């Protein structure tokens, strides 16, 4: 800015020359300077007032908007929070296909102690032991009278226990809010649900996390606050699950089996409507994993239908027959010579109980469960094509069933797949899989030739995967399986009105450290029903069954797993909405005439 002098020399000299007063020039310049200063000050003040006005306008607008939102919204209670790091609470529910609760949340309390605040530690210890008998009085007294400033007494207590502890009246015993996971159906579907536990904990909150089953598989979804009102819907049917577990438990006891499993699967959608593994446990009080022993199946936590990887025996024969039909090598009426002897290298291939069926059709190979018959079919197929077919059925990878334990069910296949392996695998020995793998394989036969992936989630409509066999091949396989029930080793498996089709399988049980037991077997019955319009697959497996019938001890699936499966189908088929198809009665020989 250019500053004009108050007494410019040129003007002063000029004024003196003309006889004018020089002070007039100075007064005029002072006046102009003051007017300029006032103009600048006014402009500056007006700018500040404008900015201040805009600030107040924005502030009052925000406050007014917020007041409007509060006035028009519903009041909600805030979630419990802990000081410091936030601990997420509120886990989404798990429901069955009909929306019935399988897992939910329950508000409860924890109880903890701050010994410096306690008045009578010894008396408090006495009363706490009376309320919680599993506590040790000596340990409590030591903790209460020592240097500790904080200790948990119980992390979950019932309302009755809370009242009893409250009545002690010691100010050093305090309560904290808790949210615990509740499984209202107890042991029902325990291996599917898995269980939960506490993650991060504070005195004012605790984080519930999944430790097994779908609780762990979908832990991120269940813990997401955005899904609090969106329960995880499973494909299980609670009513069917209860019936399956009840019948399976009775069958396990009658057949003197060590354990049992059952998988009921929709052959078109892949939905597992029921899956049971016995012995079971209560997820409300999940036991600890075993720390000793070599046989994992001794623990109730062992999930037999996905972790139970065994050679399943003759239930695999239908896959060999179906592949041979698919390749055009045979049809169900083609004659196969099953007579002996048959050797692969130095290993003889024999039949059960030394039988010799001679020349029989491919259908009768399945009906009589001929090892030599399926072995000769497998030699025509060849090792490479056999591997490709079984791989297409998902027999080489862990099943995609959505529980964490399924990843541990890795099938066991031979390192060297030669002629001997080709033959033995054709009748279910040399390749170890789980009942869930078997269910997916039989579903492909039942639904007309498509692989379907087993799922625990609710699905709508068919979920067909790649085609693994033609519809004609699948139909011939269905007819062979039906004949096994009507004329073969599964005669105890027929259920009036539902036309059961299936195949039995009995395999020696492997020892945990290698080799096989001489007197222990895994008995399996794989079924599809109803055979006239297949909708469901049922796999029943018994671990070490043994029953005395007609004066003999019997372990084969035809005497053990088959009757259990028949009872299961008779019980659950009506629950699945399947109406029995009864043969029409013969009409009376009456001729109607006019009057």
From TrEMBL:
GO terms for cellular component: plasma membrane. Residues 261-555 form the Penicillin-binding protein transpeptidase domain. It is found in: Membrane. It comes from the Bacteria. Residues 277-299 are annotated as: Disordered. InterPro entries: Beta-lactam/transpept, Beta-lactam/transpept-like, PBP_dimer, PBP_dimer_sf, PCN-bd_Tpept. SUPFAM superfamilies: beta-lactamase/transpeptidase-like, Penicillin binding protein dimerisation domain. The keyword Transferase does not apply. This is Cell division protein FtsI (Penicillin-binding protein 3). Residues 88-223 form the Penicillin-binding protein dimerisation domain. Its main location: membrane. The keyword Cell cycle applies. Keywords: Carboxypeptidase, Cell cycle, Cell division, Hydrolase, Membrane, Protease, Transmembrane, Transmembrane helix. GO terms for molecular function: carboxypeptidase activity; penicillin binding. The chain crosses the membrane at residues 49-69. GO terms for biological process: cell division; cell wall organization.
